[in-house]
Design brief:
Membrane topology: Multi-pass membrane protein
Organism: Aplysia californica
Distance between the termini: 59 Å
Structural class: mainly alpha
Protein name: Solute carrier family 49 member 4
CATH architecture of the largest domain: Up-down Bundle
Number of domains: 2
Helix content: over 70%
CATH superfamily of the largest domain: MFS general substrate transporter like domains
Subcellular location: Membrane
Strand content: under 5%
Order of helices and strands: HHHHHHHH
Radius of gyration: 27 Å
Low-confidence stretches: none
CATH class of the largest domain: Mainly Alpha
InterPro entries: FLVCR1-2_SLC49-like, MFS_trans_sf
Length: 193
Amino acid sequence: MDFYATLGGCTAGLLVSRFVDFFTRQMKLCLLLFYLLAGLAALWLTLLVEDVLPFDTVSVYAAIVIGGVFLDGGAPLFFELVIEVSYPVGEGVTSGFLQMLTAFSGVVFLSLLQIESIGKQWMNWCFFGCIAAAVPLLYFIDTVYGRADIDDMEVDVSADVSVDVSVDDDPDVSAITGGDYPEKQSLLNGSYV
């Protein structure tokens, strides 16, 4: 079941990432839609497992695969949105922190399974609750696309601007090159910035 959910999620992630490239400033809306649909799939799975809805293997498969498609499919958008919102902090720092937070949450979740007295019925409700809690947080986040604004800027590079840099006028550069290396000094004298 999870294999198909992961496969569907990876495919959806590639397709949606390509689609959202054309609508850069709509990532938040796409993520809200994905998380709403993933939340409905998680609720459907939970109600099936709790015997509120009639249990059926096909429905369990469908709920897991649909949930995986929307959760895993939204992961690239989630990273992209977090990087946009945290700009000008570096992408590596932001992505690393998000991965660390995700790994820590997984460790806490799996550590709770070691307590035998609490059972396992809470797991599906916790899964649904985490997705449901993410929707209002996504809704109220202030999306500023500073990085996208810089990417969208047009720069005119048609003007020929060159500045002659002479090391003879700069005592710091002259001290580095010194008189011992005439080839180095001639290269620096003829360089343009």
